[in-house]
Structure formats: C-alpha cells, structure tokens
Amino acid sequence: MACSLKCGSYFSGFNENMSSSSNSKASVSKKFPPLSFEFLGKPLVVPDQKKGSRNCSSRSENKFSVQAETACVSRSMRWWEKNLKPNMVKIHSAEELVSSLQNAGDRLVIIDFYSPGCGGCKALHPKICQLAEQNPNAIFLEVNYEELKNMCHCLNIHVLPFFRFYRGAEGRLCSFSCTNATINKFKNALAKHGSNRCSLGPAKGLDESELMKLASAGELSLSSLQLPSLKEETMEDLSIKRSMELSGWFDNADNNRMKLEKEGALL
C-alpha cells in the first residue's frame, strides 16, 4: 500500500554575520545566494530568509526547514507477505508455475491469483493462510497479478481474487472467484478435492492450449514444454510398434500365400 510521507530536515547557519575589516567597528551582514542541492533525487532551491527581528540574541541561530514528499511502500503494509505458511509458495514466472504443477505429484495444488491493490484479496488473505495451515498436504501457489500480468492474461484471469485447483493426472479440477463473504465456495472445493488419492500418470498441470499460448507470448520456452504430443517415443513404445508391424506383415504374407496356392501359382 502506497503511503505519502512528509520528511522535514533542518539546516542552520547558512546566513551568518561576517565582520568587515578590523578598522571598521560595525559589522556588515552579507547574504549568501540561494542554495541549490538535491534531496531524495529531486532538485530543491532554498530561498533567502526573510528579515526577522534584529533584537535576537547573538547565540540564536536562524533555521529553515525543507519539506519533501515521497511515496514509499512500508514493509509493515505488505499484507500479501504476512502470515504465510510453509506450503504457500510465491510464484515469480510462468516457468515456475508450470514446474510447480508438474512436480506436485498427487498433491492438491491451489493457485491463488491476487493483487496488492485488491480490497477483496486483502480481506480474504488471513482466511486463506488459516486454511493453508489446516491443510498442510495441499500446495498454495501465490501469483501476484501486478507482477505477472501478461501470464495471467494468457490464463484468462480477469477477476480477482481467483483460484484454480489442480491434482495429478486429472489436471484442473475447478476454478472460481470468491470473497470473504463467499468463502464457503472455497471450503467446499477444498473438502471435495482435498482427500488424498493416487492418480495414474504424471501430473498434467496447465492445459496444452494454455502452455502454447504462454510460449507464443514469450512467457515460456518451447524447450521447457513437456507436452505428450511433443515427447519422443520410448524404446518400449518403438518395440511394441515394430512387433505390431511385423505381425501385420506376416498376416498379410499368409493371406497372399493362400491366395496364390488357390490360384495354382505355386507348385
């Protein structure tokens, strides 16, 4: 959350009374030209002081203040970084998202799409952290929409907060948006898909169309994609395919031989 702070700095002694030559008993006040310097990366010019009372004590010092405004993001105001649990993982790129889904095995994976400026996301965050603590076997992937906006567009994320549930070879189980008022939608999905179970085959993760869209947008490299349609055939697959081809060839050969014998072409 951006906050505007006013910083005040005080400098003294720039307009000092300088005495003239020793032959003159009266002191002559000399004014320095306006000061110019940089403060927080911005040029500031300090004008001459206005003439004040001449009855001031010689020990008193004239002071002026320089005030500047700066925008800062306070560490204490980063609500999306508070109360995170060990099973809540921050995602920094599309490749991290794809890798996390593919390496999750049979564990339930929940992608939490949020934005630091989203009031609904901020209100819901403590409850999501609580549910993550209550379900340590589930993996919560935290995706900052503002940092990964292009990736979110490729995944058709247009409303926040938004959640996607994935598990193993089943891939995406469900997706929906909910707020603190409709948190039961999240709890019901967690109860339905949160039970431990085994699935045959590797974790599917994102759909193939989504992976190709991310690759075309420059968010993924084609070499990192592990699509079934792009995988090379294993030796076992090639062996089975070769056996089927040979079996078909012998079948055709027997049929051709029987046909030739019937026609008397062979002795």
UniProtKB/TrEMBL annotation:
Keywords, A to Z, come to:
Disulfide bond, Electron transport, Redox-active center, Transport
Record's keyword annotation contains Nucleotide-binding: no
Q: Which domain of life is it from?
A: Eukaryota
Gene Ontology CC: one annotated term: chloroplast
Q: Which SUPFAM superfamilies match?
A: Thioredoxin-like
A Pfam family this chain is assigned to: Thioredoxin
Instruction: List the GO biological process terms.
Output: cell redox homeostasis
Domain Thioredoxin stretches: 26-195
Which family does the record claim for this protein? Belongs to the thioredoxin family.
Question: Which protein, by its recorded name, is this?
Answer: Thioredoxin domain-containing protein
Source species of the chain: Hibiscus trionum
Taxonomy of origin reads:
Eukaryota, Viridiplantae, Streptophyta, Embryophyta, Tracheophyta
